């Protein structure tokens, strides 16, 4: 039996370490993060494409991103680590009337919240993305403050700063059960013994539902496989190459080393923990990329991988106290946005747990919101 921890964080991906950092900064007490793998970030975090954007369709996601982008910009000041947030911008290419209508509405909302986002005519797209075929495009939206980040750099920065402030990390420690008594988790049971606890933070990513099950909770988070491909070096990829999302085809692309990273969300994939690479999925990505960027004709595939989105029914995260288990707090279900929302998620979680008013209103992300089905949905999902 270990000594009691004021907070046990389950999961050492970007969300778990961000929570550890902000909780330690709040001087929350004894903080223990448990990770079943020998290293941090080996699940979804290491698979992330690195896109960071605030161009969402829902208020809460725009505000989560705007807060995160602010925190990414002052990451060195906050953590002492020099992780680069490369603000090359994010461009959504629109070729269908319905997308133009939807994005125009979203831009209005984004601007009303203070986001600096431009609407580009097809003839202006080439100024930022000369390699993109524009003949079928009607419009693009572009936010210069969005950009890219290396998940590993940010994870390491949070980890090191959290440890310096006294948070402890236990590797190869798998949570196998939660002991619940009188509506509270009293102990976190692991393969290396039990940890009596004050608060338990569920940051188990695509495995969050299994942690919920241990406390008798049916958490609405499903693992969905997503794949990426990178190319070898390409002459036309310059340092200011923006992140590009072709909304109609679902292709996204950004600079990676001296080539490109290409990704696509296959909406037909069923929930499972399978992360084997499906060659048909790869072919689909390459076809879409070639169609939008014909110069890729001679590109070579350098690498490819599959990872898991941790997806909720409305594509928005679940952040908040579990209604039926008083000291269980979920920070899960980021639905493809976990890297970009990690700073805000870590900050608001620690504020709520410390009894403060959160910097932004996250009531739309509450765990009990699905009681009456899906009320609102994030539609700008990649
Ligand atoms: C292909 C792909 C591209 C993506 N691109 C982007 C992007 O461009 N931008 C973006 O913002 N997001 C992106 N994402 C999403 C992002 O990667 C995730 O939202 C984010 O990494 C989630 O972080 P996490 O810490 O919640 O989960 P994880 O990184 O999966 O961490 C959860 C941790 O919990 C541990 N764990 C689970 N169960 C237990 C247990 N029982 N005991 C102990 N430990 C346990 C796991 O080992 C794991 O390390 C992408 C995801 C994929 C797959």
Describe it.
The chain is of the alpha+beta class and 382 residues long. It has two domains: 5-50 and 152-221 and 314-372, FAD/NAD(P)-binding domain; 90-144 and 223-311, D-Amino Acid Oxidase, Chain A, domain 2 (2-Layer Sandwich), CATH 3.30.9. The protein is built from ten helices and 19 strands. The protein has helices at 14-25, 44-47, 59-73, 75-79, 97-112, 122-128, 151-164, 208-214, 279-292, 338-353, and strands at residues 5-10, 31-34, 51-52, 85-86, 90-94, 118-120, 139-143, 147-149, 168-170, 175-181, 184-190, 193-202, 222-231, 243-246, 251-256, 259-264, 301-311, 318-321, 328-332. The strands form three sheets. Strands 1, 2, 9, 10, 11, 12, 18 and 19 form an eight-stranded mixed sheet that branches. Strands 6-7-5-14-15-16-13-17 form an eight-stranded mixed sheet. Strands 3-8-4 form a three-stranded antiparallel sheet. Strand 18 (318-321) and strand 19 (328-332) form a beta hairpin. Helix 1 (14-25) runs parallel beside helix 7 (151-164), helix 1 packs parallel to helix 10 and helix 3 packs across helix 10 (338-353). The longest helix has 16 residues, at 97-112. It starts with a strand and ends in a 29-residue tail after the last helix. The relative contact order is 0.20. Flavin-adenine dinucleotide (FAD) is lined by residues 10-16, 34-37, 41-45, 47-51, 174-175, 203-207, 226, 228, 307-310, 334, 336-340. Flavin-adenine dinucleotide (FAD) binds at residues 10-16, 34-37, 41-45, 47-51, 174-175, 203-207, 226, 228, 307-310, 334, 336-340.
């Amino acid at each position: 039996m270990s000594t009691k921890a004021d907070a046990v964080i389950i999961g050492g991906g970007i969300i778990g370490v961000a929570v550890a950092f902000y909780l330690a900064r709040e001087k929350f007490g004894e903080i223990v993060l448990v990770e079943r793998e020998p290293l941090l970030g080996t699940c979804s975090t290491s698979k992330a494409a690195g896109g960071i954007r605030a161009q969402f369709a829902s208020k809460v996601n725009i505000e989560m991103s705007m807060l995160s982008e602010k925190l990414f910009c002052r990451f060195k000041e906050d953590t002492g680590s020099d992780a680069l947030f490369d603000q090359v911008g994010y461009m959504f290419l629109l070729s269908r009337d319905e997308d133009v209508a939807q994005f125009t509405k979203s831009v209005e909302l984004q601007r009303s919240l203070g986001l600096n986002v431009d609407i580009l005519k097809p003839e202006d797209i080439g100024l930022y993305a000369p390699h993109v075929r524009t003949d079928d495009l009607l419009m693009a939206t572009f936010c210069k403050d969005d950009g890219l980040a290396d998940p590993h750099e940010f994870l390491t920065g949070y980890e090191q700063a959290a440890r310096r402030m006294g948070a402890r990390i236990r590797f190869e420690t798998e949570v196998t059960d939660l002991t619940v008594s009188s509506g509270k988790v009293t102990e976190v049971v692991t393969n290396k013994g039990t940890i009596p606890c004050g608060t338990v933070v569920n940051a188990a990513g695509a495995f969050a539902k299994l942690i919920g099950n241990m406390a008798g909770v049916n958490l609405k988070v499903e693992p969905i496989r997503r794949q990426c491909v990178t190319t070898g070096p390409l002459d036309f990829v310059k340092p200011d190459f923006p992140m590009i999302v072709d909304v109609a085809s679902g292709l996204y692309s950004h600079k990676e080393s001296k080539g490109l990273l290409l990704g696509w969300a296959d909406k037909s994939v069923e929930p499972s923990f399978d992360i084997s690479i499906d060659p048909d999925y790869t072919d689909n990505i390459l076809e879409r990329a070639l169609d939008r960027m014909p110069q890729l004709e001679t590109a070579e595939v350098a690498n490819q991988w599959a990872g898991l989105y941790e997806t909720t029914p409305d594509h928005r995260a679940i952040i908040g106290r579990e209604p039926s288990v008083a000291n269980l707090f979920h920070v899960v279900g980021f639905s493809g946005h976990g890297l970009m929302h990690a700073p805000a998620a870590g900050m608001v979680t620690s504020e709520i747990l410390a009894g403060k008013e959160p910097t932004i209103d996250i009531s739309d992300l509450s765990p009990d919101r699905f009681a009456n089905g899906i009320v609102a949905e994030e539609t700008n999902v990649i």
